[in-house]
Amino acid sequence: MSDQLVAISFTNKGGFHFLLGAVYGHNDRRRRETLWQDIIRLSSLARHRHLPLLIMGDFNATLYRGEKLGGRPVPDQILSDFQSCLLQSGLRDLERIGHIWTWHNKAEVSRVACQLDRALGNSDWFRLFPSSVAEGLPAGTSDHSPILVRFVESPRWRARPFRYDNSWFLSAGYEETVAGGLGQEAVGTAQFCMVHRLKNAKRAIRDWVRALPRTSLQEKEAELRDLQAELQGDMMSGEMAAREKSLAAEVNTLRLQQEISAAQRAKCSWLKDGDRCTKFFYDVIRARQHRNRIQRLIGRDGHLVTDQVAIQEEAVQFYSELYHQTDYPSVFPQLITKTLITEYGNSLLMAPIRMAEVETIVMQADASKAPGPDGFSSGFYKRHWNTLKAPVLEAVQEFFDTGKLLKELNHTFLTLVPKKEGATSLADFRPIACCNYLYKIITHLMCRRMEDAMQGLVSRNQAAFIKGRSIAEHSLLAHELIREFHKPGGMKACVKLDLRKAYDTVNRDFLCHLMAAMGFSETWVDRVRECITSPTFSVLIQGIPYGFFGSSRGLRQGDPLSPYLFTLVMEYFTCLMDIAVHRERIVPIYSRVSPVVSHLIYADDLLVLLRPSMRGMRELAAVMEEFGQLSGLRLNRDKSKVYFSNSCTLKEERALELGVEMGDLPVKYLGVPLSVNYAKDRDCQSLVDFAQRRVEGWQAAGLSFGGRIELVRSVISAIALFWLQSIMVPLATIRKIESICAKFIWHGGIHAISWEQLCRPRKEGGVGLRSLVSVREAAGIKLAWRFLQGDSLWSAWMTSRYLRGRNFWVCEIDNNFSVSFKHILRTRPVLRTVLRRRMREGGETDLWLDPWISGQSLLEILGPQRDGVAYRGLTCRHIIHGGIWRPEEYRFTAALVEEIRQVQITPTALSDVWMWAPPGRSEGAGEFRFSSCYDLVRPHFDDIEEYDFVWGKGLARKMQLSAYKLVLGRLLTRDRLLRFGVSVPEPECVLCETEPESIGHLFFQCHVAWSIWAEQCRRHLGGVGRERDFREILKWIGDCRGKEQSWTRHARLRLAASVWHVWRERNRRIYEGLSTPVVGILHNIESDVLVMSP
């Protein structure tokens, strides 16, 4: 108990025990530090005793910047203190419902509201009470809303639909069961026969699963422990040793099954190189179930619904009405489209199906993706592909031949995913379609064939789902268009348009009519029509399907075909806008020297930029109205906003003409801040929050050191893929994110290895993470590379806006250039070292200014003083004749002529292109690779000698990382803890209890640890050396040149296993009060080496 936290222990008559912490945080940040330490201690107590813990109350602090409205921003240190507390304690928020803003200042003006009150639980709490919620009650006369934790009753049990489990193959009898089910043939169409096979397999698997013995992993582990204890009294018993080996194999199989099953349900695709993280997987599953559970809804009559049966009825009724067309036209005018698909393009769409196409789709699929109503995921198809490939190919080919889908094949489950926390309206849920995988094979094939056709059909204003187009470039172009928004040059307006229920309300008849107008063959349009009009639906509530209904409008989110079809629908908006611009009804902002960009589209995100005359605003409203009437995509006026330049007058009147509200810049577009100025640290707070939410403390508690590294790697990858290529993220923001990641890796404790060291490649003494500072530099080089390709609207706009006839390689940086273009120009010195020119006709390569000769230009090689030589306007075509270099007329030196002739010419009508050719690249020049670009800009260090030992093939991840820390001397032994100022009860080694503990002593000088290594040397390595230093032992292993390579590898495995088990034994004795005799440790090492050995 303290002045800010009261801990209460509850035990009921049945013996159930849990802890409650009541919080009243101090207003002063420094005094709240004791509260954070008290919470960490209480959480640690609950964790070690495996007790559920609930902590709730007024913390007087916010966790994220978005948890405060009005007033001054919350200081970073206050956020960091609370976040560090949760990182170390492993607590997370209960779902919040009701009054989310639990405190406000009651002022009529200058109102301030915060989320100061909350309820937090640990993993044991959520395991026992997965449906508990924290409800904010009305504040009444107080300035705080009370928090009431509710325990929502679980719905009545109902059988869940069949779901294939990827771990079943490890159980005896599985292969025979599936083979028997799939082998039962039927008479009928190919699709019917395929579905019949799957039904038989499902029935056989269900019966087999019911008959499996219910073997508990915990029971088997207990049985193994008892047997090993018994074995201590009779170590020479061969019978008991054989039984132990058999039991150990069963335990490992059960652990692997549990991990595979949990990983499939958790869908953590980023975790590919960590230890077994089953506990983490189950925590993720519970967190997702908790987040997606629908416990209350606002019904159609406006009243709150909490009864599960009523919730099910509301959901079925809502989506049944949503997917039914009401007032759409059935007759359409002649549609004007910009481009048509060619006859050759149509022939490619309907080309015969090849087995290789189908097999590639199946083998590249993510086996953890949710299955459709038949219950079979892509993992099932992968495992049994040899059996399934022939009937699958027949079913797919039948669809392409007949254009008919079996109704059962196109049934769909709708999974409802909340768009925001505490969603209570069905409009705030996103319906994700779970389609049968056989159907998805068909639509994936259709998507692959449409990709090339889409390239020419869809204008450059659209960037989503088109091969070769980038969301980052799309975002950059939006920033460029907004950059001069407030500068003189007339009135300007930017309109951010939101479409109401975009995918769900598409007029399917219009889509098919539009495709025909674009030149798609009638056969292909019929195939598309069959896919989008034949589905039936059931809604999943708490994982159980309800209802059965058809549909007459909309595209399914989750159907691979939907994004491509939606892009075609949005192309008609571009057609309408282009007509309005051509007829000067709408006047874009920039049009004189730059490509006309009246609007940008990314999926359903629309951005329109125009001169906001009254007529222009009316015309835009008319375009949206016409587009909505035909396509079904109506404007959501509540979420749409118009932003005017400072020079604009009569803003309210102009906004009224359009019918949307005014907003203020900056605004988020595609997830990043869109502003007239370069991004500042405060503008990028959402990026910091994104990183913080991805590495919340409860995840650290369930992950090993290796697992935390992999999660951080995925966070860095996500940031690098989009944010750092979309805007110039300030270095201050980068440092904050790196600090968050480092804290997460070390679980809020001592940073035994610096972030800079972790970000080195493995060969140079790191773990292969990427420094975001270096990633930022590499992202700039990638932008420069994309700019030089010149094949996007962004690069064309930048060229016309900034270069204006000047050569990119010699253009001086102008103060009027945007931040991103300045950044691109500053990368030129690096680009010269990695780019090589692929010469074709030479007409696009400046003879004197482009660095086409080994990264140098002729002007740089020869100098500026060349009498009688014209530098401007000449291209390499002037010295290429018949595909051969002819530079004689310029009287170059023989050495230079020879160097020119080394530049290869590929005679073709295509343009000259820049090729990515970094130094040391073995596969030659080619496409850009971010990994090689990052390697160019990162700091480089010497290789470590122990690389093969630490990261050797076959070594378990947990042992790699303990060996890694040992090599660097960063294991937190007691002597090092004392140096960090951490008090330890006693400095002696807990194994021998005679000498002070240090890294040097613990592993090989301690007689207990030495006996473990020496015994292994005697038994398996042919004798014991005298070396008792880690690096000397490694040298001894490496110096045994007479031994086979397999012996060296085996010796390293044993050394790493010994290090890990000694460290594990040391920690068990200190933190758990448990110990294992040397003979038991040797036995555990033997088991691990057996698993790791080939």
Automatic annotation (TrEMBL):
Source species: Iris pallida
Q: CDD domains this protein is in?
A: RT_nLTR_like
Transmembrane stretches in the record are none
Q: Which Gene3D superfamilies does UniProt cross-reference here?
A: Endonuclease/exonuclease/phosphatase
Q: What is this protein called?
A: Reverse transcriptase domain-containing protein
Domain named Reverse transcriptase: which ranges? 398-674
| GO terms of molecular function | catalytic activity
Question: Lineage of the source organism?
Answer: Eukaryota, Viridiplantae, Streptophyta, Embryophyta, Tracheophyta
